[in-house]
Amino acid sequence: AQKVTQAQTEISVVEKEDVTLDCVYETRDTTYYLFWYKQPPSGELVFLIRRNSFDEQNEISGRYSWNFQKSTSSFNFTITASQVVDSAVYFCALSVFYGGSQGNLIFGKGTKLSVKP
Amino acid sequence: DTGVSQDPRHKITKRGQNVTFRCDPISEHNRLYWYRQTLGQGPEFLTYFQNEAQLEKSRLLSDRFSAERPKGSFSTLEIQRTEQGDSAMYLCASSPAKNIQYFGAGTRLSVL
C-alpha cells in the first residue's frame, strides 16, 4: 500500500523567512512519481513539481527548491524568502502505474502555510 | 488550452436528492480522474477514465455514485440519494498519457 505523510499541519512564518515543508512517503514499488501541489484559498490545486523515483537530483525553481532523498523516503519542499502570496495549503502526493493502479494520486493531509507581512 | 472546467462550482441540496456534476477536461487529455476532498484532508481518489472506459474505481465509490465519460470527452459524476456525509469538494483532473494531472476548481457540495 502507498501512503504519504505530511507531519506539519500548520506553519506560520513572517515574510522573507525561509520555510521547509516535510513529506515522507511509503511504497513498495520501485517506479513511482512524487508531486507537490499548492491549494490557495480559491480551492484549485496548482501543480508545482513532479519527480520520478529514478531521478534524485534536487531541483530549484526561483524561490522554490525540492530535496528528494530515497534513503529516507522524503521529498521536502523549501520556499526561500517567503511572501504573503505563498500562503496556501501545500500537498505532497505519490502515484504509481503498476499493480492495477492507473496513476491516481495519493495525497498527504497537507500543510497550511501562513506567511504574515 | 482553457484548463479543466467544472460545473457547478457550488451545489446545495437536501438529503435524499440526486445531484450531477460535470467536468470538461483539457482537450486531447485522454485520462480523467475524480477525487473527493473533505475539510482539512487531502483529496482522495474516486475513479479514473481512459478515454470513455472507466478503468478504476475506489472503494469510496459506493453504489450511490456513478460516473460516465461518453465519447471520451466531458465526464459526469452523479450521486443518488445524497447523505450529509457526501458533503465535500469534488475535484476533477485530466492528464495526457502518464503525465501530470491538472485540476479544475472543483464543485463544493453541501447536503442539508
How is this structure best described in words?
- The complex is a heterodimer of chains A (117) and B (112).
- With 117 residues, chain A is an all-beta fold.
- Chain A contains no helices and twelve strands.
- Chain A has strands at residues 3-5, 10-14, 19-21, 24-26, 33-39, 46-52, 59-61, 64-69, 74-79, 88-95, 106-107, 111-116.
- In chain A, the strands form three sheets. In chain A, strands 2, 5, 6, 10, 11 and 12 form a six-stranded mixed sheet that branches. In chain A, strands 3-9-8-7 form a four-stranded antiparallel sheet, with no helix packed on it.
- In chain A, strand 8 (64-69) and strand 9 (74-79) form a beta hairpin.
- Chain A is globular, with a radius of gyration of 14 Å.
- The mean pLDDT of chain A is 93.
- By secondary structure, chain B is mainly β.
- Chain B has strands spanning 5-7, 10-13, 19-24, 31-37, 44-50, 53-57, 65-68, 75-79, 88-95, 102-103, 107-111.
- In chain B, the strands form two sheets. In chain B, strands 2, 4, 5, 6, 9, 10 and 11 form a seven-stranded mixed sheet that branches. A four-stranded antiparallel sheet of chain B has the order 1-3-8-7, with no helix packed on it.
- In chain B, strand 9 and strand 10 form a beta hairpin.
- Chain B starts with a strand and ends with a strand.
- Chain A binds chain B through residues 4, 35, 37, 42-47, 50, 91, 93, 97, 100-110, and chain B through 31, 33, 35, 40-45, 48, 50, 55-56, 58, 89, 91, 93, 95, 98, 100-106, 108.
